[in-house]
Amino acid sequence: MTRIHLAAAALLLNACADQPPAPPRTTTLKPLTEIGGIWYLDQNWDQDARQWYYNTTQGSQIMPYDWFMALVDPATGKPFVESVTTRFGYLAGSPGKWNPDRLPVGFAQDKDADGSAWIGMTCAACHTGDVRINGRTIRVDGAVTTGDLYAFIDGLSKAVHATATDEARFAAFAERVLGPNAPVGKRISLAAKLKSFDKSFAAFVAASTPDTPWGPMRTDAFGMIFNRVSAIDLNLPKNNRAPNAPVSYPYLWDAAHQPKVQWNGLLDNKTAFDALGRNAGEVLGVFGKITLKPPADAAHYYYSSTVRGRNLVAMENQLRALRSPLWPEQVAGRIDPIKAAAGEEIYTRTCGSCHAVLPREKGYDTAPITMVPLFNWPKPKDPQAVLAAYMTMCAAGVDAAVAKGLVSVNYAADPKMALDAVCRKVDTGVIAGVAMPPKLLGGAPLDNPDLAANLLSNAVIGAIFGDIAREPGLIEDLLLGDKAPPPWKGAPEGGWTAASAKSGKYAKPVFDTTPLVKKGAAMTDDHRKLLSVLARQKGGEVQAVSPEATAEAAADTTAKLAETVMSLLAYKARPLDGVWATAPYMHNGSVPNLYEMLLPPEKRSVSFRMGTTAIDPVKVGVDTAAQDNSFVFDTTKPGNRNTGHDFGKDLSDEQRWQLIEYVKSL
């Protein structure tokens, strides 16, 4: 049996004599701030915080930095870096200390220990959004990008190919990279390297081409990460699958406080180590590099990777301070307090049980979520029945399991993403049988084949161990958590890279345990496991898992597996503060606005145009009529279904508008 270790109105109030007095707003709406033509809302970040976050490496390495800056887009004849914003929808960056070359938001330079510089992406590329309202562009930190990831990698591949195969293009490229008087040998070497990269990157793009186009604002995150680790990092092309379960990029405010992350709640988010693991997995999915081979010995029990753990911890700490954006009444129109008050009652009655309301102008430590099951399980207390349904769905699809009476559909949302996450198996190649963490600490060896999710977990843990070996200060960062000083005041310029670690200037003593005894330092089970591995590397004592504990764990494996399956075949309902800035809606971005979210599913748009930064302030969502929309979303394609969430179907139209008015105020 396979195991799983482990997601309108905006009207101005025209007061009439017979209207009751308007209730006061419960929050303070601060003025928008304009910087360089972009307007910012108060989200508890200052300009230092956001610019550091936009431009700091997390370990992604797409291609050599100087190549990227020298590349010309054959479609425009202009520098390719400009096309990242003008053609592919990513946001324009600002020049400054952390961005001297004015890279787009979320694109950053990474450096290896030998000083080699690379262009890469950070989480800001996908989780920072612009919204355009009445002629003003507002940048929303933590919101959804309008970037089109597939269009970007496809365009980059075509630019590289055009350069590598055209003598005139290559000559101009080589001059920009090497200078006008470079020796012939260097030009020949550059040509060979570029042709090799052209071939490998074209193969990557071909393998990443979805049958269902993603378009802007979405990607098949799990599909891309699974392909990257199982097919590219393991060098097993047969593991590749077309990434056909695209999802919207989740918005990040509150995410650091949620107990589970990802649309299907696949990953725990209870400790700093949980968060680091999730973010390290994201790095591996966006061009982070990892060498997957069996550890040579106990002293080197890890995988070498480009994951920059110290930067990831600092980013997560910073995200804990991020707050959701308040509806910008100054440009979008004042919230009608009468309608909003009526909508609050509707929300409490129909929405509040799943979508918690978080306090405003107060700190909070948790952001409650509700996992909404995709299926009804006729025999939920019978593990064998649950696993039979699971195996049937994985092998033959949901319809087959329903036909056999093993499950019935509950939520009716498109299940493809959730099923891919828990069903996909891959060949584990040379690391079959490797446990991360070691078996001594309770790690389970990889089977062959095994679930892609298990392989990813194994790779992530090994990468983190490797990062600690390179950057031991990561231990202290994990323990200090958000008590650590702001990273832009303590980290090297450009963030923590392999080059900064090698210099020794910023490194901590490898086994300095002082942080472990500091007053108030939080020690979790994950931290203890981590430090036990380090102690073992230095010959220290390690508590082995007892035979009794092993036997007890084996006895309830089937029951736990069944419970895990049921918990992961669900989608997350989260707090809705700031949701006005995060369209399109549903996990797969299949509903253009809040108004349609409250309609019966059969009355929603079958297709709609999207890709613009403009929002519709009445229906609250994508302005589907905007001229700069670049993509037609077709809900009839696999993975794009817009059914589910029918909780507004029994509301009157007046109640829908009242509810929307209240949601705008969250």
Automatic annotation (TrEMBL):
InterPro entries: Cyt_c-like_dom (IPR009056), Cyt_c-like_dom_sf (IPR036909), CytoC_perox (IPR047758), Cytochrome_c_Peroxidase/MauG (IPR051395). It holds the Pfam family RoxA-like_Cyt-c. Keywords: Heme, Iron, Metal-binding. PROSITE patterns: CYTC (PS51007). GO terms for molecular function: cytochrome-c peroxidase activity; electron transfer activity; heme binding; metal ion binding. It comes from the Bacteria. Residues 338-459 form the Cytochrome c domain. This is Cytochrome c domain-containing protein. It comes from Azospirillum thermophilum. The lineage of its organism: Bacteria, Pseudomonadati, Pseudomonadota, Alphaproteobacteria, Rhodospirillales.
